[in-house]
Automatic annotation (TrEMBL), chain A:
<dbReference type="Pfam" id="PF00171">
    <property type="entry name" value="Aldedh"/>
</dbReference>
<feature type="domain" description="Aldehyde dehydrogenase">
    <location>
        <begin position="35"/>
        <end position="255"/>
    </location>
</feature>
<protein>
    <submittedName>
        <fullName>Aldehyde dehydrogenase family protein</fullName>
    </submittedName>
</protein>
<keyword id="KW-0560">Oxidoreductase</keyword>
<dbReference type="GO" id="GO:0016491">
    <property type="term" value="F:oxidoreductase activity"/>
</dbReference>
<dbReference type="InterPro" id="IPR016162">
    <property type="entry name" value="Ald_DH_N"/>
</dbReference>
<dbReference type="InterPro" id="IPR015590">
    <property type="entry name" value="Aldehyde_DH_dom"/>
</dbReference>
<dbReference type="InterPro" id="IPR016161">
    <property type="entry name" value="Ald_DH/histidinol_DH"/>
</dbReference>
UniProtKB/TrEMBL annotation, chain B:
<keyword id="KW-0560">Oxidoreductase</keyword>
<dbReference type="Pfam" id="PF00171">
    <property type="entry name" value="Aldedh"/>
</dbReference>
<comment type="similarity">
    <text>Belongs to the aldehyde dehydrogenase family.</text>
</comment>
<protein>
    <submittedName>
        <fullName>Aldehyde dehydrogenase (Acceptor)</fullName>
    </submittedName>
</protein>
<dbReference type="InterPro" id="IPR015590">
    <property type="entry name" value="Aldehyde_DH_dom"/>
</dbReference>
<dbReference type="InterPro" id="IPR016163">
    <property type="entry name" value="Ald_DH_C"/>
</dbReference>
<dbReference type="GO" id="GO:0016620">
    <property type="term" value="F:oxidoreductase activity, acting on the aldehyde or oxo group of donors, NAD or NADP as acceptor"/>
</dbReference>
<dbReference type="InterPro" id="IPR016162">
    <property type="entry name" value="Ald_DH_N"/>
</dbReference>
<dbReference type="InterPro" id="IPR016161">
    <property type="entry name" value="Ald_DH/histidinol_DH"/>
</dbReference>
Amino acid sequence: MAEERIDVRKTYKMYIGGNFPRTESGRTYKALDSEGNLLANACQGSRKDFRDAVKIARGAFDGWSSRSAYNRGQILYRIAEMLEDRRDQFMKELGPIGFTTAEAEADINAAIDRLIYYAGWTDKYQQVFGSVNPVASSHFNFSMLEPTGVVAAFAPENSPLLGLVSVIAPIIAGGNTCIVLASEEYPLPAISFAEVLNSSDVPGGVVNILTGFREELAEHFSSHMDVNAMCYTDDLPKEMKKTIDENASLNVKRIVKRPVDDWYDEEAQSPYFVTDFQETKTTWHPVGF
Amino acid sequence: MSHTETKEAAYKPTSPNSKLDFQSVWEYAPAPQDADFAEVKEQYDLFIGGKFVEPSKGRYFKSTNPATEEEITEFAEATQKDVDKAVKAARKAYEGEWSSMSGKERGKYLYRIARMLQERAREFAVLESMDGGKPIRESRDVDIPLVAAYFFYYAGWADKLEYAFPGKKPEPYGVCGQIIPWNFPLLMLAWKIAPALATGNTVVLKPAETTSLTALKFAELVKDCGLPDGVINIVTGAGQTGSEIVNHKDIDKVAFTGSTNVGKIIQKSLAGTDKKYTLELGGKGALVIFEDAPIDQAVEGIINAIYFNQGHVCCAGSRLLVQEGVADKVIQKLKDRLETMIVGDPLDKNTDIGAINSKEQFETVNKYLEMGVDEGADIYQAKCDIPENGYFIRPTLFTNVSQSNRVVQEEIFGPVLTVQTFRTADEGIEKANNTPYGLANGVWTDKGSKIFKMGSKMRSGVVWANTYNKFDPTSPFGGYKESGVGREGGMHGLAAYIKN
């Protein structure tokens, strides 16, 4: 009689700088399925993990923001291709945490299409939102958008794949790099999505994904002096919001709050999610012989 | 061999007369691009309603390789009945699946086309060079990558049109008739088809009769992509076929790229109808070189402006206007640079200038060469060897020309540059603008403010500053005056396919 095969389970670690390290703190917490059974131990990321990730995201910024818009578009499209290819993996991931088969399929479809939507924006938002300004003096004057820099984000709590993708895509489409805290209760799809990123052509450090607790990390996300913007889409507790807003004033961090109820809605995708993380630069140049 | 030694002895790292003397130092060994893997059928039919169909009159015409004068394949001649069939297929597709499909899904088909073109890029590059005579380096590094890029760019617009047209509900025209030239066969196809499909139109496209091969290979690719039948229809033939498309009652919009003469005929034949049209026509671009320009960079720019693609470029910089103080220096450097150019086998990776596209065009350019000399100009041609067979012309300069010479006034569409001088910026502008054309101009100077001043004064749809012949899907392209109406490329290029 053949021996019953014991399956090999995946270790879920974080995603920093194109690698999958464990948290330096050595702490984990339990990621459970919808019936309360253990799915895996997730890393409980620390302040130090976040600080490491910021350093890496800053290092990746110059290269990523210097990529041509066309190239960034190709890479976002590549992520979509890879996600399409790994549908089954995400079906398995979403099922145990309460998605019906139809819901999981819809979630994955929408996530893929959202990546393609933003792939298309990379070389278009500049044309739509940039301008040539008819100043009265003899100058050629134009305004263009440039990425804000390093963005820290809380991914939505209740949309562990589609919501996560919807937050990351517009940030990186515009040439920023980011550190994203995955859904606290459902952290595993985010780490599997990191595997998708890692097998696309996204350079290491452009997207960094941590798992852990908002309560602990909100303070650090918002107070870090080398983070240029912070974004969240959930309705956070009042106290946490206040902390984030106050800390932002330390280095004039841009705080982007975009409350989204339904990630399937067309309203949940927009070029304004891209321009939220852009700065306008205006150049003056004389005209004359 | 003993002469190798003498060559080595003669080698000097920097030559006192500034000549770019490469050939006495080393010779270029042949570097042929493998072409066997690119499959060409003996005969190609018309692509209508998602199927390859025989032409109703059963007539085919031959296509030759202009570098060898050998026959490559033959194409079907589409007559009135075939064009009608193609328009009907396009109408059916428009009224069926295509116009009810969301922009998001339409875009996905265009992304598929872009991706598959990238995958098969080398094959298309080889076929483009075989059929049209352009150097493989250009078809491989310029034409085909841009083709994929245009599809990729417009794919992204399909679900974002409301952002391109604020305050307007963007709607397609319906069925577009598109006629393209032979100088950039597949690239012109991409310029036409990508924005038309992104905006929800369907098309009937006619490639030029001398360069239909890649369009039909593209049709095969379209089938592989699973695009709904009839969204893209490709009919082959000469001017008569084009005229059938333009004059067909059920065409909503005509897009034409080609000569100004034919453009005018099309504009006239559309008179009194409600059909919309965009025309990308000829040009006679000026290259204005100021005394403060970086001269070596300018010389490279001139070479690229006029000798790129054998000068078969509607926006070619075919009139050099050089400021007097540097004229002798620029002309000397240009002549030296011409001597380094390699004219020959389009499929050799070292080739700079390939074959003139067709016998007809070969004769036209030669006619202009004679005409220039008859008008009293001084002709200078590179002394390079050219192959015995095929249609090759050495890169040519005409100096001692005046504004009224026909070689200065008319579009030659070959590797022929005229050289004039100017003293003041105003004189430069006046000479640059003294043409019925207005497609593109170039300016070389190290002074930024002069670039913008020249840019604002030159009457052309494109101005290249310290560079030339640059193309990108995000950048609008098109002419002033008799160089055409409408723009292709960029967000502006969408407008050509949206009801106004």
